[in-house]
Amino acid sequence: MKKNYGFLDDDEKLNENSESIRYREYKKNIRNIQINFEQILSEFKESLNYYENNSPKQKDHYIHEFLLNNKKKIEELENLHKNGIQNLDIMKNYFSHNSTYAIEIARYLSIFDKFKIQLQNVKNTYDKICLHNSNSNKNSNNNIYKKKEFSSRFTNNNDIDQVFKERYALEYSISELGNIISVGQETNVKLKVQNYNVMHQLKKINFINNYLPQIQRILKNIKNYNMKKTIILSVIIALCIFVFFMIR
């Protein structure tokens, strides 16, 4: 049965709609994971700022609550990042043939690459605070004189403040690097899509070139056929005129 390639049949439309629905569901899930990750990360940073701005005495009182709450936050961030990457891998495997979907998936992958860097920074900061707290407790138990204890804490607090400053500088540098990587990944995907379109057009041109001699041969035959018809018609008309005048 002859098929009209200018229109999609019902089955093709159904498959296209089904794919669009499935993609929107995955995208909605990824978007929710992104929102939850950013919210928990923001809560961790607020908690960290509150800890940094407290006095040494308040820090000692607040440290146990800080460590317990933020350990749970880090675990939540790890699970969210893991789920997001798994979903994006599925999306990449099933929807990358669509150029629009491929660009969007690449953008989300770059976002979760940044999340991975931010998560590692959070874990490093948490580990440093745990180490600092452990050292402070040891010093507290081993020191007898209050003056020496105060001096040790003051030095440790200066050290941790310096660590925080270095962390902020590192986070800024990593963020800038993440932006550059994101732009590079999006450019790479766009170039792949353009390359696919160029190859598709080249295939069409090659297809036409392969059949061009046959088309030219058909046109030549049509031209010869029309010329023969014209000659025959001219001869018939000439004979008719000749017979007409002979009869008169």
TrEMBL record:
Q: A single GO BP annotation from the record?
A: vesicle fusion
Where located? Golgi apparatus membrane
Q: Which GO terms describe its molecular function?
A: SNAP receptor activity
Q: Which gene encodes it?
A: PmlGA01_120041600
The residue ranges crossing the membrane are 230-247
Keyword check for Transmembrane helix:
yes
Q: Which Gene3D superfamilies match?
A: Formin, FH2 domain (1.20.58.2220)
Topology in the membrane?
Single-pass type IV membrane protein
- Give the UniProt family note: Belongs to the GOSR1 family.
Record carries keyword ATP-binding: no
Q: Which organism is it from?
A: Plasmodium malariae
Which InterPro entries is this protein grouped with? FH2_Formin_sf, Golgi_SNAP_su1
Q: Name one GO cellular component term.
A: SNARE complex
Q: What is the lineage of its organism?
A: Eukaryota, Sar, Alveolata, Apicomplexa, Aconoidasida
What is this protein called in UniProt?
A: SNARE protein
Provide this UniProt record's keywords sorted from A to Z. Answer: Golgi apparatus, Membrane, Protein transport, Transmembrane, Transmembrane helix, Transport
